[in-house]
Amino acid sequence: MQNNQINNKKRHMILALLFLGWCLSYLDRMAMNVGIVEIAKDFNLSPSVMGIVLSSFFAGYALMQLPGGWLADKFGSRKVIAIAILFWSLFTVLTGMAWSLMSMIIIRFMFGLGEGGYPAASSKAIADVFPKAERTSAQTIMMSSNSLGGVIAPLIATPLLVWIGWQNLFIAIGILGIFVAALLWYYLNPKNMQVEKADEETAQKASFKDVLKLRTSWQLAIMWFGVSTVVWGLISWMPPYLVDVRGLDLMSMGMLTSIPALAGAVGVIIGGQLIKSLLSGKEKYLSIVSFIIMIVSLYLLFNAPSVSLVITYQAICMFFHGPIVATIFGLPHKIFSKNVIGSTFGMINLGGMIGAFLAPMIMGYLIEVFNGLYVSAFMYIIVCAVLGIFASVGLNSKNNLSSEVNVVTSNDKAI
């Protein structure tokens, strides 16, 4: 009993640190989205060029998803996590030292490469530490850090931006990252990452080649593409929209954008509990309904007559993105053995990051082409959300997913 309590404490500590690592990564990203208004003034950037700067991070981030997952499976999550945080912290500091538009784009691309190794490695750590029955809950708690980071980041980054300038803001956040990397390296030691033998999986193992063959893997990747397009489209362009179109000052904008992020964090946690209990095996229907509500909220958002309604509709949209995120990142823990979890999440996250890469750039181009009108940009993310619905429609139930894995592995053995 006492041994189990100790192991649970270790697991909870590791989960808290992984959560902290995600919050830090989100703070780094949000610092750019909050600071882009001032950066655009200093570098005299047009909306389309602003989109390129914002998307340069996601180019590197997307490219690193598959290699990051493979590295986590091969060399272990501890090494990949520590190196990733140190690498992206270095380039966060360098962001504050950027001297030209081209240097900013290159630095943000390299920053994306560093941060791109963390998602799959952190999911791999969940599989290494937690018994199979607890992984879905642990994963959704960890992923709620994305939205919670969206609450905390503007509250931290916006005042610092006003007080010390965007250059010093990035330098300060980069230094903080070095301390977080040291903490994770200390606690993510092999002794703390051993699951009891009684909880070891006896299920048939699948290779990464099997993961690529499964239709479900591609469906989850497309769903994540749709969600990421909406989320990062809003995160990237709502600050300029609120300032330029709705007439808010920087401080007010930063405070208000934390409200939808909080709604998103709550949505992820509630979604995780739903797919664990009441709606287990019915993730398809939960995702379809959530996508539809997101789309309706987006349409109402850009037609809203007041700022308060804009934030309200954005908060509804972000809340209902939560159950979809819980589905996307919860199902793999149910159906795949932990030897390919890193690679699996690398593949799924690649789909999401392609959407996140394209959204700021395409929306910036559309805003510029239509002379500062944001309607076309919002319509783009709505179309991508509709694509997510089509992927959700074909999603299998939990029982069929397990059968699908067994069919693939059996066919490979027969060959």
UniProtKB/TrEMBL annotation:
Keywords carried by this UniProt record: Membrane, Transmembrane, Transmembrane helix, Transport
Membrane topology: Multi-pass membrane protein
Subcellular location: Cell membrane
CDD domains found in the cross-reference section: MFS_ExuT_GudP_like (cd17319)
InterPro entries to which the protein is assigned, alphabetical: MFS, MFS_dom, MFS_Na/Anion_cotransporter, MFS_trans_sf
Record field: transmembrane: 49-68, 80-99, 141-163, 169-188, 218-238, 250-272, 284-302, 308-331, 343-367, 373-395
Pfam families: MFS_1
Keyword tRNA processing belongs to the record: no
Signal peptide: none
Keyword Zinc: no
Coiled-coil ranges (or none): none
Domain named Major facilitator superfamily (MFS) profile: residues: 14-400
Protein name: MFS transporter
Species of origin: Metabacillus rhizolycopersici
